[in-house]
Amino acid sequence: MPRTLRQGQRSELYVVDVASNEHRLVFSSGEVLFEAPNWLPDGTLVVNGNGLLYRVADGLEEIELGGVPPINNDHVVSPDGRTVYVSAEDGHIYAVPIEGGPGRRVTNDRGEGFRHYLHGVSPDGTTLAYIGLEWVGDQRITNVWTIPAAGGADVQVTDDEYADDGSEYGPDGEWIYFNSERAGHAQLFRIKGGTVEQLTDDERVNWFPHPSPDGTAIAYVSFPPGTEGHPADIEDVRLRLLTRDGEIRELTSLFGGQGTMNVPSWSPDGSSFAYVTYPL
């Protein structure tokens, strides 16, 4: 079921300029709990809410999903801006023309209970990176997978029992960035072939690495120490920037978490990124 606002709560969409750290309120709603901002190439912002997808203009303008089941907050815009790929509540990923038209299922049936959670598309638009969730007995297993955007055979990128999530391509199309609990609690990593590199190592619980278009920085969501998973409505959720030289910049602290910045959220020119807060 789609998340809804609590009494007295709002959804607030912000854009932060990375150079100046100026945060600009773009849109606010006390009715729709919207999540996970993406950008179209023309600078228009896209969010999900109530199982639907919206452009953000003067209000929320619904994007026709072409018969796709209700969606969650895992959606990615193709590099050319013509297609949006969405994860639906039936566990599959669909391709939808941004200007409307029938949706096309991308993913394969991988057995009862296997679910696909989309997080990234390669810079050339040919490949999707997703998290595959399956149950082995009573154990919940998540790994990084890829699949051709046109449909085809899946490729398993990680094969372990650690909790992996947030798989997203870097701008070179070679590294896939993700968060994982292989370091004890969630930290940021990247993988290329069989090589895994750890990017953060601190007491906070770090999720959803989003590499900038020029590859000079990674924006991510940082939860308080001891947080399990990536829950909603948490105090002291921080948005951080990891620079190429290893410096960590604190950009803001907010009330939120789930839905704040789950998917690629950098502006096309790399000057800013978008996020959502849920103040009470």
TrEMBL record:
It comes from the Bacteria. InterPro entries: 6-blade_b-propeller_TolB-like, WD40. It holds the Pfam family PD40. PANTHER family: PROTEIN TOLB, PROTEIN TOLB HOMOLOG. Belongs to the TolB family. This is WD40 repeat protein. It comes from Kribbella jejuensis. The lineage of its organism: Bacteria, Bacillati, Actinomycetota, Actinomycetes, Propionibacteriales.
